[in-house]
Amino acid sequence: MTQIFEAELTVGPRAIDAYSRLSYTMWFALAEFVDNSTQSRLNYGNLIDEVLQEEGRPLTVSIVHDRPNKTLRIEDNSIGMSKDDLVAALRIAHPTPDSKGRSKYGMGMKTAACWIGAQWTVITCELGSSEEWTATVDVDAIANHGAKVPLTMRTVSRDEHYTFVTIGNLRRVIQKRSEETIKDYLGSMYMFDLRPDVKGHVALKLTYNGEEVMPPQESDWDSDPSGTLMKRDLPTFAIDGKTIKGWIGVLRKGGRKYGGFSMFQNGRQIQGFPNAWKPNVIFGGVDDEGANNLIAQRLTGVLLLDGFGVSHTKDRVLFEGEEEEALEKFLVTETKAYAEYAKSRRGGGRGPKWSKEQVRDLVKDMQTEFVSAEIKDALNNAALPPMETIEANNLQQRQSLTADDEIGRLDILPDLQVVISLKETSSYEPHVTFVPGAEANVIHVIINGLHPYYQTLEAKDAISECVQQYIFDAVAEFKAGKLIARVNPDSVRSIKNNLLRARAEQLDNADTEVRAQAEADLFAPKPGRAAG
Fold first, then answer.
1. Beta strand pairing status for 237-239 and 60-66?
2. Buried b (16+ CB within 10 A) or exposed e, 447-466
């Protein structure tokens, strides 16, 4: 006889300590609080809007990072919470009756606060209640010692309405240089809220350390030879009853971080600038880093995907079944003409990829760098040691290489192998050294990892391009030495020029092949299913 029992699946208090290991980024964690503030206003119709209008201020969310005291404070002037609302909001994965839209899972505030810091406090007052409630959460005490969350109340004016969240004992260090990135991301994520409407009113004012977070500038769309703007709305499309809207366009001046589709849900960006969704069937891409072609730089769009699943940290759309495939098929058809136009701008297009204005601005930005006292001193005091000394030093560097120093080998030709090594010798050694190997037709590229210049390179693309240029230079010098008795700068540059052209052609051909194969795979009949 089969006996049937029941067990309740419960989550223990130590789960909140595990939230510190979620795959948040700081901007997505902060967005959880902005979501709560904006959604709480929407949940009450025009009530809070009318109050804010009378007060002469918009809904405002203020983020303050107090670096010396290692605290993060998020304040809003939305409708606030009653005691019952606050108690309900502290329950994990128990959406409250008004949890919907941007805050429908009942998780965001708790998971984000625990990810950011080990202690946090919520102070809130609901409009018209005259009661300010404070809840203090000690993550370690709750997770490991069975502590509860104490609640205290004090009386305030009935006109007050706010929520303050203060997070202390920060688990994450917010570097000064990353704060601009945080503002850029938040501005992009809430661009629909931050941009003024036709009357000049904004739905949200968002500040970070007192500076207003601004939405991205309106896109500068290209136009075809007839003058038609290369931007249009997408036809409404449905997948399994979920409606998709949006628009696509071709940027006049693009960039890798500006291309791709930004995906929004409930007016809030889930994935977008500067890491927009770029399916390779449209954008190509021959490696995990994605494409860096003209399509990926200039073809862009916005997709409004309400109703689809999103990740726990709200940074990725979770397509189910064949939803993503259906969306890609729709977009391939809708973007084909725009993608081809974006690609055609190379060379014979309507203008050079590098405009004079772009290069002029770039050179202007370099003015202080290249006319600095340090550069002048370096040139005025320049001196070359005897050639024999340089060659002896290069030889010593090659001979001191170990197996751990070697990064990789490139067998470029039967008579040309490049060995790349990264060696941390001294900050006074050259940034890079090219030296023939003990074997014929081998050249070593030895990068000095301790050179101070490399500390100025943060972006992965910049480091990648730096290493690639070293390899091109080494190969060009090697080949020039094979072709002529005496190597001179012009001959090296001539060979490098051809190598750079070949590189561009190789990337373009490989990318075209990837897109063609991806499209063929996407539209191929499925096994057991009739074509058409």
1. unpaired
2. bbeebeebeeeeeeeeeeee
The secondary element (H helix, E strand) that includes residue 141 is: helix 139-145
Q: What is the pLDDT of residues 97-148, one digit of tens each?
A: 554 566 655 567 888 999 999 999 999 999 999 999 999 999 999 888 888 9
Q: How far apart are CA 237 and CA 526, in angstroms?
A: 22
What's residue 347's pLDDT? Answer: 42
How confident is the model over 246-258, as pLDDT tens digits? 999 999 887 888 8
Please tell me the pTM assigned to this model: 0.71
**Weakest-pLDDT range from 190-194, 236-240, 350-354, 469-473:** 350-354
Phi/psi-derived region of residue 172, left when phi > 0, alpha when psi is between -120 and 50, beta in every other case: beta
Neighbours of 51 (CB within 10 A): 19
Instruction: Tell me if 480 sits within 8 A of 489, measured CB to CB.
Output: no
| HEC per residue, 433-473 | EEEECCCCCEEEEEEECCCHHHHHCCCHHHHHHHHHHHHHH
C-alpha to C-alpha distance for 221 and 124, rounded to whole angstroms? 44
Query: HSE of 68 in the Cβ direction (CA atoms, 13 Å)?
Result: 0
